[in-house]
Each structure stands twice: as C-alpha cells, then as structure tokens.
Protein 1
Amino acid sequence: MMQKNFTFTDYHKLDDALPELWEALQQKVSRMTEQIGDKSPHVAPRDTGIYDNMSIDWWTSGFWPGMLWIMYDMTGETRYKDAAWAWDERMERKMIEKNRFHHDVGFQFLPTSVIKYKLTQDPDARRRGLAAANFLAGRFNIAGQYLRAWNTTENKNSWNHENTGWSIVDSALNISILFWAAEEIKDPRFSHIAKAHADTVVKHFIRDDGSVNHVVNFDPLTGEYIESIGGQGASSDSAWSRGAAWALHGMANTYRYTGDVKYLQAAQRVAHFFLAMLPEDYVSHWDFRANETLEGEPRDTSAASCTASGLIEIANSLPENQGRPYREAAKRILLSLTQNYGTWDRPEHEGILLEGTGNKPTGTNIDVSLIYGDYFYLEAIVKLLGWKNRIF
C-alpha cells in the first residue's frame, strides 16, 4: 500500500472523517503487521515507537492478534488471518508449562480463540476458548461471589502477595468468555458464575456516583467484604479512569448477554460519571481524582478508547433516541483521539495512540502506546462501520 499522509485536523465530526480514517487504519495496521510480526506487544515508548515483546502468558497477549482478526473480518484479506492464526495455539502450549495465566484469560482467548472460531469454525479454536472459560470459572470464590484476581506470588515483598481474597474490576470485561461458553455448549453454569461476579461488580465496585473501585478485598473464607484497595488508582477512594472503562464496557456487555436491565443501568451510571469528568478535549486523565485540579496529570488514551467502545454498546442497547447521546459522546472521544493522539504522521511508530498511562502509582509506562488502547480504538471505529462479530 502506497504511503499516504493523513491529517484529520479539518474534520469537525467523526462521521465525516470515517472513510478517510478507515483508509488510514488499514494502512497503519498493515504496516504494524510487518513491524510487530510475532512479537507479543504491550508497550511502545513515545521516543522509539517500538513495541516490546512480552511472554505469551502476559495479560495483553490477545490484543494484537485480536486486531488482526478484526482486520481480516472487515477486509477479507487472508494475510491478516495468516498472521493471527497461531496465537491461540501458542497460548495453549504455555498453559501446560509454568505460567502466569489468571483472571485475564478473557482478554487473551476472546480475541484469539473465540473470534477465530466465529470466523473460521476451527474446532481447535473452539476447544481452546472453552478451556479458557473453564479456567476462569475455576477461579470463582463461592462464598464471596467473585472471580479471584492474579495469583499468589513467591515474592513476599510484592504489593499483591497475599491476594486470595482480591477481586479486580478488569474482570467485568473478561466474563464475556463465560457468557460465550454458556451459549456455545448450552451450559448455564458459566453464565451463572458470570452473572454472580457481575452482581458483585455492581454491589462492591461501582460506587453510587458512578466512580469505580479498582481492587476489592474479601475474606476468602467467609466472603465478607473487607476493603477497597487503590491498585492502579491514585488512592483507595480515587477514580481510576481505566477501571471505569472496564466496568462500563463490561456491564454493557453483560446486559447484551443477559437482558437484565440492572447491568445496563450500572453501565450508564459509570458512563455519566466518566463523561462528566472529561476535560475539554474529551480524553480522560489517568485518574479523575488524582488531585483537585488535575493540572499536570497525564491522560490515558486507553481508558478513552475502551470507554468509547463501551458507549457504543450502551447506545446499541437502547432505542435510537435514547442511545444517541452515548453514541455521539463516543464519537467526540474518538475524534479527539484521532486528531490529537494518533501517530498518523509517524509511520515508523508501531502504535496507533500516544499518551496511554499504564501504572501511574508505580511510575511505569506513562505517555506510551498501549496495545489494548490501540485494540479498543480499532474496535470502536469498526463498530461504527458496521462490524458485528464483536467478542467483548
């Protein structure tokens, strides 16, 4: 594909920019396919623009192949399918070795095995997706009605060493693999667990004002709620923006699978808080309560892109006139990401969005490209273009 320079500064509405943006994304992801190759990317620093290469069991390993599958579905170009095909097989091999798989297997196997099966009917992909759902279901604590976060580490100095009672808001989006498994094999056990965890998210993670706890600690024996832990937010009572994105998108998906309006209402509550807290350019700071003015605090484009995709889910779940404000809000976020945070003028840069924030409290991965930010940006754009085979 001939290199073309894309600038989106003259557009005032995303709808007007979509044809050119889709052309730009095809060019960008095509180039990323050559640049990234078999790497399992997580972070690309702003200065180098080169994505790292994480272990295949790292929680972000599904997002890049997920982008490839989306591109295959949207374009029919087999090179994307060929590049994506082996990822779930690689992860399955890691499953039988010492590994770090945990609550994020939904992030890993939904955009690899599950979408691969949906698009190709490959029986091994189906088997791997169901195995991942089984794995996630096995992390369910019956007493506390939650999916356990992370694994016990051997490092007693680690901040999350004693975490058998911990649950994490990220799992609100991972439970989509349980709903898929329940539908695929007509076994409601999986959806029972997913709904029970979703109920816990609504009760203990989403606050009355729509802000969200990141980590909640339960007594693993009795299931009793103990406390909220700050996690990647500024504090235990702050408002980490990506946590809100996980909850919003996850609860919107849970409504899509269950039809239970309480989950849609929970997603809307988070959405209203998120949108009310946005700065003038509609791209969220990393934590809405990092300080009183947020002056000098970094943005998190990954929170913005995931939220935009979740807002589209909310819009799709409502009558047209009620859903329009959510869809238009998503478009405003996406237009700002496109105009102000894209790498369209940097063909050597392997990411799409700049100014992602990975973990501000630890000073890790600030003002970087994050592969999940890129994934949800692409996911949101193709939803607006009519993509139907969504997996989250």
Protein 2
Amino acid sequence: MNPTPCHGLYAITDALLISDDRLIHAVEQAILGGARLIQYRDKSHDAARRLAQATALNELCQRHTIPLIINDDVELAAQVGAAGVHVGKDDPVFASARARLGKNAIIGVSCYDRLDLALEAAQAGADYVAFGALFPSPTKPTEIRAPIALLRKARAALHIPIVAIGGITPDNAPLLLDVGADALAVVSGVFGQPDIQAAARRYANLFA
C-alpha cells in the first residue's frame, strides 16, 4: 500500500460544472478550502485539451503538495506525472496500471456496491477503494446505489482507506464517517457551489 494517506475531502472535477477558463482557479479554491486529494475527471475525447488541463492541474497540485489523481486514464496519468489514477470496472486491470505507473503511484478502484471487488482490489495492492453512490447523486443520477451498512462491513474487512462517493453533503457525511469512511469524494457539493473554498471547508471541517 502506498504510504500516502487517503483521508479527508477528495474533490473531483466535472467539466459540466467548471468551464475550462475557471478550472485551475476552481481547483485551487477547493485546495485552499481543505481538499486533501484532487481527481481530474473529464470524459471528453479531446486528447490535447485533456493533456493541457491535466498538466496544469498537476503543476498546481504539486505546488500545494496535494496528490492529483487522474480518472480512468492510466496513460494520461503517466504522461503528466500525476500522483496516481482511479480505475473502474471498465478500465484497464489494476496490474497493468501499477506496472505502468510504478510502485509509488496511488491507485484507487471503484467497487460500487460490492465488497468482493474491494477485497480483490486490496489483495492486488490497491491504495484505496471507493464505494457508492451512497446517496442520490446529481452528478450521476442513475449510478448504482450502495447501502451505508456496506461501509461498516468494508471497514471490518479491509486495512486500506475507504472512499465514499455519491450525493454526499456536509449534513449526511457524518453518517459515512461514523461507519468507517476515510475520505469523502465530492463533485457538485464543492464545484457546483458559488463559493468553492467555503464549500470545501465545510467538508474539511468534518475531519478536524
């Protein structure tokens, strides 16, 4: 397991919420508000744009000593020298991601509502696993729903960080922390708010 802890607010970008010209500023505001990890998630097929944005975000995150995780794209993570990658069920297998990025990369795995996937990921050497959506999500309204009780089972069975995602607000987040979540992955709760720094701080304060 990578020694870098996955703990606190894990802010995830969304091109629908943040215009290209605001991306760097928005992410910096999230970091200043207390985000401990940043994930660059962009599903477009504009490779040049994605490379430029990921490069700029990685430079920003390095200045603030915050890990940048690239969603779904192992090659992009390698290209920009990001801290790691987050993979899901349709992404390259974990072993190939580790081989490409090296032993020090942070590799997270989406496990949806399945403890068996998390156990497999942990056995393979994942640095964290993510479960969700825990609540109805405005970002992915058709996402698989995971019961909160799953986090308690996962905490008892796993020795790596657990990330909760999906519809998490500062009000419902304590339920997830109480049953074992180490980090809260948030999209619209941070980047969909008029004051990003203040929104991030509300989540970060839950870990104080």
Protein 3
Amino acid sequence: MELLFVLPVVLVVLIGASVALDFMYYCINGKRLFRSTLSRTLEVLVVLGFPLLYLGIFDFEQDNDCCSDSAVFSPEHRLTIYVWIVLSAGAFFYSAFRKQLAPPLLEVIVNCLLLLGIVLNFFIAFQGVLSPVTLGHVPIVLLFLLLLSENQKAVLRQTQDDLFSEEHKLTAWANHVLRLPIWAKYPVLIIICLPVILVVTAILLLFGQQPDSSIRAFTDTYKHGFSQWDYMCDNVQCGGHFLCSVAAQGHPNIVRPERLGVRHGQLIVCNRQLLIANAFEEVITEQFPRLHRLIRRNYNRVGDMIHRYYYWFENKYISDAIYYLMKPLEWCFWVYLYLTDRQPEDRIARQYL
C-alpha cells in the first residue's frame, strides 16, 4: 500500500527534474535538451497531468470544512479558477503544437494567457497544501517561460520574412506589440491582460460567477494561504452536529446534559439529543456513504452560518430554542436507529467516549 502513495510522488519529482534540466539547457544553448516526442510527452504530463492530480487530491468534491481537509478553492467560485486553468493550458498546447504563428491579435491573446497562467500558478502555489504534489507548479512555470521565449523567437523569424499583415489598425497595433523588445513587450502584455480578464469575467457572469470570483475563490476558504474565513473555525468543536452541539449548551434543566464526551481531544457536553444525532449519522455513514456526503455537504452550509455568528449561539436561551426545534428530528433519528440497529442503545451510549 505504501508503494501506491510513494510512486506518484517519485514520478512527480522525476518529471519535474527532467523539465528543470530541459529549461536550464535551453537557457544555456538556446535549444531543447530532449527530442520533440519526449518534450511533448513531458509537456502533456506536466501541464495537463499535474493540475488534474493536484485538483483531484485537494479540491474536486471538497467543501469548506473546519474539521477536515478543506477545499483549496471556494466551492461557489472554483469554476472561475478552473476556466483560467483551462484557458492558460489551452494557450500553452496551442503554442506548443502549432506549425506557424497565429494572426497578430490572436498571438497577443495567446501570450497574455501564458502570462496569466504563470501568475495563476504562483497564486495557487501560495494557496495550496504543502506537499510533494504542489512542486508540480515549478515545472509548469518553467515550461510556460520556455514557450514564451520560443514564441518570441518565432515572432522575430517571421518579422524578418515580413509575413505580418498590417492592413487594419488593430492588426498593425498587435503586430507592433509583438515586435517590441522583451524588456518592453512583457510589461505591455501584462497591461493587455486586464481587458482579457474583463472579457472572461463578463462571460463567467452568465454561469453564475461573481465579478470578484477570481479573488473570492482564494479568500472564501479555510486554512489556506489567502483564506479569510479562518475566524469561522475559532469556536468550532469538530466532529459533530453543529445544531445539536449548540443545543446541548442550553440550560441544564431543559437540555438535560448526561455526561461529558471527548471529541478530537476536547471535552464537550453531551445530552441525549446530541448522542442520538451522532449515532444516526454514524449509521447513515455506514449504510449510505454517498447520501451521507450529500447531506453533510449541505449541512455544512448551515455550519458556515453558525461559525460566522457563533457569538449569537452562545446565548443559553437560543440554545434552548434550538433544542426544542431539533426535537422532531431527534425522534425521527431515534425511530430509525431502533428500526435498523440491533443494539441501538449501545451505539448511542458509545458516542464521544
């Protein structure tokens, strides 16, 4: 089993080292170290494989969760980041596999997307989980830089042949930008990135994204580089039902605490309602894991609201009210346990021991 975890890490390191050698060789000699077939294979593995591996481990089907591995990107805004990843990777593969340069305006947009891909990788690297898989950002950036240099060489060769058309003002302007020396070209391209970002953002509005989704995808998260929601986890005791945990903090003569329990190394107050609810979740997890993930995903949204306004729920009268509101669900949980478990009281009793 250990081999299943070690092998991907070894492959990431070997592929990354190969790309680094190729990049250094290119910087010294002005040409690629590996032949075309091997170079293209490395590019596919790095630019396509590494992001899929990274997102598959740290972001796909992940939610914002104080008590487990939280999503790298905000679930509500991650579509924007995915689109930028696809656009920058598409620009890379278009540049890598084409036979000749694109028309000047399209060439400018392609180079802008490559620059945005480099910037995006730096942001994702800072945001992400520190692990060997995150080292995949380094070879991606190196390949993007290498391809930008290749594009510049191709522009200079084509300029010498005077193949660019300047029939229209926009084409002439794009042609002029491409012909600029490197020290002037890339600052201009960075400025041109702004209207590209605005156009993509406007299109994403049609798919339910927000104008600031590119930022909120990073900030509306827990426990990551740019996360701004860590304060929501300050008063959260992990491992149980948010509402039932709050309800157990009410007046003792109403919520009837039975004993203390241990949850993730912390003492918590347990009443029967909390024990039954947790026993029910345990049964659902065992019998219907997919249903449990769906329920938990939606229930966590309630938890997010409680985390943000936790000081309201420290009031014992509010806890009493929640206790009464949860009573019908408690009875439903209790009935289900008695219908499906051979020893329901044993299961209830062992919660949080």
Protein 4
Amino acid sequence: MNSEQLIALDQAHVWHPYASMDNPPPAYPVASARGVRLQLTDGTELIDGMASWWCAIHGYNHPHLNQAMHKQMADMSHVMFGGITHAPAVRLAQRLVDITPQGLDKVFFSDSGSVAVEVAIKMALQYWHARGQADKNRLLTVRNGYHGDTFGAMAVCDPVNGMHTLFSSVLPQHYFCAAPPLGFERPLVDADLNELEDQLQAHHQNIAGFILEPIVQGAGGMRFYSPAWLRAAAELCKQYDVLLIADEIATGFGRSGALFACDHAHLQPDIMCLGKAITGGTMSFAATLTSSHIATTISRGAASCFMHGPTFMANPLACAVANASLDLLAENDWQTQVSGIEQGLRQHLAPAARQSYVEDVRVLGAIGVIQVTEPVALVRIQKMLVAEGVWVRPFGKLVYVMPPYVISADDLRLLCQGMLRALERYFAS
C-alpha cells in the first residue's frame, strides 16, 4: 500500500486513542523508527520528541533490546505465571527491588500502567480488609492527577478537569484535595497542605490510600511541584494511618532527573506503580511494588492471597527486554544523559517565554513544557510541527517534549527550534 491507501484504510477501520470516528483526522503512517527518528511511508523523517508517550527512553530499534527479545523468543515468548516461574521475571523483580526506594521488596507484574494502578488500589483495599478495617475503602488524591483509563484508575483522575467526566456517575466516589502548588523549588508554606490535612482529618477512617504522581503531574497538566510538599504529604499519611501510593508510571527510570521521582523527596511509599519506560518502550508491561508487611497482611487475610492475576503477567519476553533496558540505563549513564537534555531544553526553550502567546516555560529533567494562552487545535498545529520535521503531540494549552535519552545535542536543538517555529506560525495565522 502507498501512503494514501494506508491512510484511507486507517480512517475507515482503525479507532485511535481519544479520537473520533466521525470524519477522523488522518494519522501519519510510520514505516520505520531508529534512534530518535521516525520514518514516514512518504519518506518524511521526524525527530521524535515524545519517546512514544514517554516510554522509548533508549530510542528505537536499539540492538541491545532487540537482541534480548530475539534470545528470549528462542526459549519462550510466553508462559502462564500461575504455578510457574522463570528466570527473566525473578531477575527483574530482584533488580527492581534493588533500585526502588527501600522497603519495596514484593513485586507484582502486570501488562499496562492502568492495570498497575488497579493492582495498587486493590492492594490498598485488601490490606485494610485483612486488618479488619473494611470501612477504609476509599482513596484520596489530588486534583490535576491522571492515573489511567480503566475504571479504577479513572476514579482517581481529576473528575472536573480530567478526561473522564462522562463516566463520573458510575465511577467509585473518592476524596479529592487541591493539587500541589506549582514550582519544583517552591518553599513549603503551611497553608499548602491545609486541604489535604482537612480531608485526612475528616475521612481517614474511610481512606485506604493516598495516590498521586510524585513531583510531576503528567497528563493532568505537566505540573512540577516541590519535594518538600511531597515529604510533608507523606508525613501526614503516616500520622493518619493512610497508605501512600506513588504512581511512577510516567516519572520512573530517570525522566524527572532522579531514577524515581520519589527519590527527590527521599521518600519510601507503601506502594509504587511502574510502567511506560520499564521495557525501554518495546512492549506494554508494568509492575506494582509493595512492602513485605503489606504483602504478608494481605496473604493472611480472609482470601489468603492477593485477588488479581493477569493472563500475560510476567510475560518472559517483556521481562527479558526490561532487564536489558535496565542494563542500558546503567551503561549509558542515564544521569548524564538526562542532565544534558535538561540543560539543552532550558537553553533552547527559553526564547518562548518572551512570546505574548506563552504563559509559562518549565523544564525538569528530560521534560520540557511550553504552556500557551489558549488550547491549540491539534490537527492544525500537528501539521505545522510535522512540516518542521519534528514529532510533538500537544494537548490543551501544553506543547511539550519528553525525548528519548539518547537524543544528541544537535537533534535536541532542532527539536526545540522546530517547536518554536511551529508555535510562532500557529499563533500568527
């Protein structure tokens, strides 16, 4: 098929994420991807600023990841995990325990970030049930949060400013408080936590866990907040006997400048969700980690086990490539990579702050955000970005990048300059 035929069939039959099937916009057909470049079927080459929704941290077609998958396929691509184990999963679990915050020493594998959040919620609920406190069956979270698209995950996303208002009448009802104030280096003020403490004080008898994205709120607004706020929130959770659930699906594996965003606050959550970059962007895979105390308490409860078990749990192919991705993080010195991206983003995005149509420019780790004064029309600005030779996927008022860690200084400069030119053209037209 040529590009036109491919696009026509796509529009006729394929339903894309958060897209209409009524006069759907054309998608850009990719023929191949290597390093930080996407090759479209018409020969157009794009520098990828999204790392495939933040997960392809080592770029595309990396030989070490490919080799790991080929080697594992020769033995087995999949085997059920009920009553069976295998070396890739055991090794990966041990490595995740070693690199995540101390005390997270039990690992439950699943197949997507949303499911990792569902698992975390069920862990929290089943823990309190096993403790004889079944009334602790609600969650507390902050506004502007995003945790996934399945029903349990949707219920702890922002119910007003999020993407799931349509389902609010059928979702479990949880407690919400104000989002953390913007500013990674913002000094903590007592009033910053008033609403959180009010909710805990009033409802802690019914709250099983406090779930949030540490330091970086992603799809809910690309908001960065301070480690001081996170530390203080964690202390309140301890004070009111509420489990702390850290959703590190977007921030894990170095994206925020720390290996895990909780590390910025020297924080040890009770439960942590991982996904996205866990396999270096090659396969859908996720993990939920918790403490021995929580795992043992659940296991000694009425059910005598944790009541969850995905069909593709601990898929050997995914575990093998996840181990290979951890190899690359260490070998490539991810700290130096991310620090270099942060410096480049600060330098190359800074000119945007002078534009009248820009409200804010913010950078943290390998995340760069331009917040504009009005929501952009995606189809129109996407064409302008592609014309500049960059792949960036804005949403709302946010035009942002989370490039692969392997991006060169030159490609990062071209990526940022392409963003700025597309924005200038968009707001001039």
